[in-house]
Amino acid sequence: MNNYLIMMYMHKKTISTFRTMILIGAIAIWGAFDSKPAYRIFNSDRGKSVDYDKMIKEISEADVVFFGELHNNSMCHWLKLQVLKSLATAKNNAVVLGAEMFEADAQLVLDEYLSGQIKEEHLIKEGKVWSNYKTDYAPLVNFAKDNAMPFIATNIPRRYASIVSRDGLSGLEKVDIMAKQFIAPLPVTVDFELPSYKEMAEMMGGQMPSAHGGQSMIEAQAIKDATMAHFISKNLISDRIFYHINGSFHSKDNEGIVWYLKKLNPELKIRTIAVVEQDSLEEVEEAYLNQADYIIVVPTDMTKTY
Questions:
Q1: What residues have CB less than 8 Å from 201, skipping those under 6 apart?
Q2: Distance in angstroms (rounded) separating the CA atoms of residues 144 and 191
């Protein structure tokens, strides 16, 4: 074998060895990450593990998608942004956003920011944003801004929810007619037998006081749920998916906002996501099954944003 052939042989062998080393390294890195995942997704069907793309494909066919978050979980905030981006891609930006974190009377300020009329500092000061807005919710708002997506402030103004927690739903009969434009149409029916509301009663001692106590607190929760459902329903746009962000309790078990939304429009195709924390991500705990169509499990010790 002449020197040229020897050199060619050694060159090809080196390339082959190098490629093998890259492949082995990639597999090792993948294995390292896979052995310590930051989250896992399960469906409500016997807690079967599913991949992210399959979840996106299924929820993108819905009319309304609820992302039930844990307010201070950093992985949760990253995931809800990724879901938004994936839905935007799947729907060619035909997405309407909505969030518990914005009160209905802040809609004008939110719209002014989205249209570029005002600066973020004015939105923060006058839009009554949450204290963790910049880290946890600004990415959603700015994605909507950059992609010309409507963003709906769905929640009842907290001052009116406070009236209900103090005086019950009857307290809203006294508010001005102008104020009622930011609240679900009255009267609002409350089903105290819903498991989620019964769970609230249990957390308050297991009793359902007749007035000015546990009942009014549950009515305050219900008026939030009903108001968010009202503004979601009011802002549905044909051929656009409505993506709503809220605390997990507001949509778990297809109750809360979902229950009121179904009352308004039983024909809607609704899909829900709930984020839960567990020490182990191997399987979803039985207690979390059926909380949502998809349960995203994240480590209990995941970094908290506050």
A1: 192, 207, 208, 214, 218
A2: 35
Number of neighbouring beta carbons within 10 Å of residue 69:
25
> Full-prediction pTM beyond 0.90?
no
Across-strand partners of 73?
304
Q: How far is CA 36 from CA 29, 40, 282, 283, 299, in A?
A: 11, 10, 10, 14, 10
CA distance 274 to 66: 8
From first CA to last CA, the distance across the chain in angstroms is: 70
Q: Over the stretch 44-85, which tens digit does the pLDDT of each residue have?
A: 878 999 999 999 999 999 999 999 999 999 999 999 999 999
Residue partners of 245: CB distance under 8 A and separation at least 6: 67, 69, 80, 97, 98, 99, 100, 101, 137, 140
Task: Give me the residues paired with residue 274 across strands.
Answer: 68, 295
Chain Cα centroid distance, residue 107: 19
Alpha-carbon distances of 164 from 22, 80, 143, 196, rounded to whole Å:
63, 30, 34, 18
Strand order of the sheet with strand 49-50? 49-50, 40-43, 294-299, 270-278, 64-69, 241-247, 95-103, 151-155
